[in-house]
Specification:
The protein is of the alpha+beta class. The protein is 51% helix and 8% strand.
Amino acid sequence: MVPDISRGSKTYGLLAYLFGPGKHDEHVDPHIVASWDGFAPDPGRDPAATLSQLEAALDLRVNQLGDRRPKRHVWHCPVSADPGDRLLTDEEWAEVARRVVAAAGIAEPGDPDGCRWIAVRHDPRHIHIMATIVRGDLRQARLNKDAERAQAECRQIEKDFGLKELNQGDGTAAKRPTSAEGHKAQRLGRGEPVRLQLRDAVRRAVAGAADEDEFLDRLKTAGLLVSLKIAPSGDVLGYSVAHPDDRNAQGQPVFFGGSRLAPDLSLPRIRKRLGTGPLQAVDNAQPAGAATGQARVPGSRAAQARRGAADAVESAARAIDEGDDGQVAAQLAGAIEVIDVIAIRAPADTRAQLLAAARAFERASRSHVRAERADNRALRYAARQMLSNGYATNRGEDGGATAMLLSALVLLAIAAARWHSGRGHAQQAAAAAAAARELRAAYGTVAARPMAAMAQGGRRLPPEVRERQAEIIRTRLAETEGAPREREGWDALAATLAEAEAAGHDPAALLDEAKSWRELDSADSVTAVMVWRVRRIAGLSAVPAPAPAPAAVQRGSGPRTGQAAAAAPAPRRRPTR
C-alpha cells in the first residue's frame, strides 16, 4: 500500500478532478468513504450536494485567516493498494483513511481541532485523501515528516489487513515523480515522467567522469539544459538540469536540482565521488591470484575494457563479502557506474534488461552507510575505459568479454543483496535482487552463443583429453554444490581447460586459483562462472579457439620453446604503402 503526499493551493480544482470523469474516463462512481466528521457534503452520491458546498466546508478555517492564509493549504495523499491485493470495501478504505490522516498529523483521534479532510474513492484499488491544513484553533498542522509517518502506518495496515507487505522505507530513496508529472507525460505521449529520464542522464554523466568539469560537459553533450548556482565568490554551489522539450505553462524550461533527482546526485555528493583520486589503472583492480603481465588477448578495445571491468567487479564483490561497511558502500557506488556504462553501450537485444538493472541497482547503491575515505577508483576507472573504448557487439570476442563481465556483475548484485539484507536494508536488498535478475537475463542472452560453442568443443575433444579434464573437474569441484549436475557446463569447462593446457597452463592449478577468488554458492551455474574465471586467469580469448587442423594435432599443440620456436618461420609482414 503506497501513500503519495503532495501539496497544492486550489481546493476546488482538486475536487473537480476527484469527482470528475478523469483524464480518460477512468473514474467510476466517485464518492466519499470517510471525512473529518462523517457528514461532509458528497457530490458523488448526494444530488443536492455541490462541489462549491464541499469546497466551502473544507476551506472554512483557511478563509478565517484572511490575509494570513497559507498559500499551499491543500494536502493531497492518494493511497494505492497493490494490484495483487484483494479489493477492500468502502468501510475498510475509510479505516485506512482515518489511520493515515492520524499518522500524518492531519487529524489525530480525539482532537476536536484536527484539520478538515475527506477520502474519495473513484477506483476499486485506491482512494484520494484531501485535507486543508488549518486546524480549528487556526494554527497550521505540524506536518514535518508526514510522508515517513504515513509510510510507516501503511506498512502496519498491510499487516493488519492481510495485504501484500512492502518494504519499509528509510529516507534514502529518490523522490518519485508527482501525479502531475505523470499526467503531463501521458498528455504529451512520453513513456515516463521527465524526472526519471533526467535522473538516468545525470547518473550516466557521472559514470567514469574524471572531474567536475567533465561531468558538467557530459550533461550538455547529452542535450540537457544546465543551470549553475554561482556564489558571489564565483564558486559553483549547485546545478540543475532540464529537458529542452519539458516546459511549463509560461514556456520556460522545468529545471530539477540534483538533490531533487536523487540524494546522491547533489553536487556536494558528486564531488565526494569524483574526489577519490585520479582515474587510472589501480593495482587492486584484479582479483587475488589473477595473472599479471600476460600478453594481450585478442579482441577489440571494447572487449579489452570489459575484461578489465570484470576483474574490477570480482575484486569489488570480494570487498562486499569481506570489507567494512564504508568500503562496501564505496564499491556499491562504483558498481552502479559500471552497470550504467554497460547499459548505454549495450546492443539492442540486451539494452532494456541492462537499463532496468541499472535503475534497480541505483537504489541498492544508496543507503545511510557512508563511503568515507573508501576507494572505488578501480570500478570508476573500469567504467571510464568502457566509455572511451566504444560500443561492443554481443558476438565474437566482444560477446564473450561481455558475458565475462555480466557473470561477475550477477554475483556482485547477489553479494550486495545479501549484505543489505544482513543489515536490515530491506529496500536496498530487494533492489539488488531485482538488479541480479535483470543482469542474469542479459547474461543468458549474451552467453548462449559462446557457451554453446565451448560445450560443442568439449564434446569433440579426443576421449583421453576429455576424460583427463573431466577427472580434474570432478576432483576440484567435488565439494561445490550443483557443479556435478551441470553436464553442458562441464563440456564448456573441459574445453576451456584443454585450451589452457595447450597454452602451457596446469588445468588443476587454474581451477584451484579460480575457486580461491570468492565463494561460488550464490552462482546459478558454478561451471559457467569457472569457465569465465579460468579464461581470464589464463589469458585465453573470451570465445573458443577454432579446432586445430589435423596436421597441427599430429605435431602437438603446446607452446613452442627453445629450438622449435627458433626454427619457426617468421610471420610475413604486409609491405608498407
